From TrEMBL:
Source organism of this protein record: Pseudolabrys taiwanensis
An MF annotation (GO) of this entry: flavin adenine dinucleotide binding
Family, per entry: Belongs to the class-I pyridine nucleotide-disulfide oxidoreductase family.
Protein name in the entry: Dihydrolipoyl dehydrogenase
Alphabetical keyword list: Disulfide bond, FAD, Flavoprotein, NAD, Nucleotide-binding, Oxidoreductase, Redox-active center
A GO term from the CC aspect: transferase complex
Gene Ontology BP annotations: 2-oxoglutarate metabolic process; cellular respiration
Domain Pyridine nucleotide-disulphide oxidoreductase dimerisation span(s) in chain numbering: 346-455
Cofactor note: Binds 1 FAD per subunit.
Length: 465
């Protein structure tokens, strides 16, 4: 059998690419070595959000129900059932991808794919048997893996990556998180809510590097209020596993006296790295950049004709929706259309409580680029719905070009920020000005009214402030 396209990897990049290619009439196959849906569905977005949802309700039941007049006994944790809830979320989504492959007549091969030559993909099944498939084009969508920390061995039992942290069979008394990025804060929140003491060690001097400075500061304050402890400008240099408790050695980032912190579980969440192991890239002559990412041009083409790459394995934010959009774009390019991703409008969301969402430039970005801008900011304390819900932490901040009023960045920290950022993405995709958002009717009483008010605030005419 010869294909128009073989996609290696069925994460959000790969499976979406395959579906779009099949929709466009390309004879398409996928190769997957573990489970359909990749990191995102199996050990990433979906299980983490299931646990975030369940643990948030657990905390609400304990803290917020009584003040709303809902009298329930103190919630009791049934961790195995919570983990089953998470597993059901995974299974349902993985089955959904299988259904979509069948619906779109995409052939799925289970095994490890290796490019033996342009147009040839060898699939080694779990039974050790191999077969070689022929194709006009190959898309590499093999995603990413956990970045290792020198001197700290992940065993996924006591020293875990996000994968182990999604499946702990007991709530740790003390969880030590290395890295105050997205994974550290999301999974740290999960285990804190259901009873762990959580300490987060971060190399830099604040949480969530890369996000807007004001949002980062507010986020840290709120996480501290919730009970997380941060040790900033610090690094973990080793973990002694010999005793009943783990003993982590922590030093100031710039060097200095070390201290020891005891913990039951250590979560290593210091980033992810592109995954290209055993893919045959070197032999095929595909070039990688200095960080091990597959090098591609604006059409996702590698230096070898007929071989393309998308998602976490190439440059850019390691996000599921970025991978998906690249999957669609490359499929359209292969079908002769003009596939395209607008990298200026890729939202990022941290699914903590409150959520933190951003799209476009931060104030720091604009200052560094010397762009003159106006800021419109609106706090949720002045939003009727947030007040009604008693969820008033956070604000919306809109950055607009000082000359043209074009929206350059939107930053939201607050309940449901992840849903609210979609409005900002649509506006920015259409090149909207702050005035456009300010003049758009928003339903009352809703949290997105704070987005409209922040847009009004750009021109210093917010109504409720
Ligand atoms: P992946 O999803 O990594 O998929 C790659 C697939 O390729 C895997 O299934 C792998 O088995 C397969 N593969 C690799 N090599 C081979 C081979 N040789 N042969 C066959 N198959 C192979 N992003 C968000 O946008 N929102 C979130 O809320 C979010 N939460 C996350 C939470 C966690 C804990 C983690 C770890 C990540 C999270 N991410 C989130 C990031 C997101 O999961 C990734 O950006 C996304 O999965 C990347 O998609 P991909 O298709 O590039 O690769
Ligand atoms: P990250 O890059 O978000 O954060 C890593 C943090 O670790 C940074 O703050 C960094 O300064 C710190 N760090 C690095 N080395 C350190 C060291 N030696 N000691 C102490 N701190 C150190 O990476 P993270 O959280 O592991 O997530 C990986 C990827 O997964 C991210 O790129 C993210 O895009 C994706 N992801 C996305 C989610 C979402 O969209 N909601 C959720 C979870 C993951």
């Amino acid at each position: 059998m010869s294909y128009d396209l073989i996609v290696i990897g069925t994460g959000p990049g790969g499976y979406v690419c395959a579906i779009r290619a099949a929709q466009l009439g390309l004879k398409t196959a996928v190769v997957e070595k573990t489970s359909f849906g990749g990191t995102c569905l199996n050990i990433g977005c979906i299980p983490s959000k299931a646990l975030l949802h369940a643990s948030e309700l657990f905390e609400e039941a304990g803290h917020s129900f009584a003040k709303m007049g809902i009298g329930v006994p103190a919630p009791k944790l049934d961790l195995p059932t919570m983990l089953k809830f998470k597993q059901d979320a995974i299974d349902g989504n993985v089955k959904g991808v299988d259904f979509l492959f069948k619906k779109n007549k995409i052939d799925a091969f289970i095994g490890t794919g290796r490019i033996t030559a342009p147009g040839k993909v060898e699939v080694k099944g779990n039974d050790g048997k191999t077969q070689t498939l022929e194709t006009k084009n190959i898309v590499i969508a093999t995603g990413s893996d956990v970045a290792k920390l020198r001197g700290i061995e992940i065993d996924e039992k006591r020293i875990v990556s996000s994968t182990g942290a999604l499946s702990l069979d007991k709530v740790p008394e003390h969880l030590l998180v290395i890295g105050a990025g997205v994974i550290g804060l999301e999974l740290g929140s999960v285990w804190r809510r259901i009873g762990a003491k959580v300490t987060v060690v971060e190399f830099l001097d604040g949480v969530l590097p890369g996000m807007d400075g004001e949002v980062r500061k507010q986020a840290q304050r709120l996480f501290e209020k919730q009970g997380m402890t941060f040790k900033l400008s610090s690094k973990v240099t080793g973990v002694d596993t010999s005793g009943k408790k783990l003993k982590a050695t922590i030093e100031p980032a710039k060097g200095g006296a070390a201290e020891t912190i005891e913990a039951d579980i250590v979560l290593v969440s210091t980033g992810r790295v592109p995954y290209t192991e055993n893919l045959g890239l070197k032999e095929a002559g595909v070039t990688l950049d200095e960080r091990g990412r597959v090098t591609v041009d604006h059409h996702y083409a590698t230096n070898v004709p007929g071989i393309y790459a998308i998602g976490d394995v190439i440059v850019g934010p390691m996000l599921a929706h970025k991978a998906e959009d690249e999957g669609v774009a490359v499929a359209e390019i292969l079908a002769g259309q003009a596939g395209h991703v607008n990298y200026d409008v890729i939202p990022g969301v941290v699914y903590t409580m409150p959520e933190i969402a951003a799209v476009g430039k931060s104030e720091e970005d604009l200052k560094a680029a010397g762009v003159a801008y106006n800021v419109g900011k609106f706090p949720f304390t002045a939003n009727g719905r947030a007040k009604a819900n008693q969820q008033t932490d956070g604000f919306v901040k809109i950055l607009a070009d000082a000359k043209t009023d074009r929206v350059l960045g939107v930053h939201i920290i607050g309940s449901d920020a992840g849903n609210m950022i979609a409005e900002a993405c649509v506006a920015m995709e259409f090149g909207a000005s702050a005035e456009d958002i300010a003049r758009t009717c928003h339903a009352h009483p809703t949290l997105p009214e704070a987005v409209k008010e922040a847009a009004l605030a750009v021109a210093k005419r917010a109504i409720h402030m």
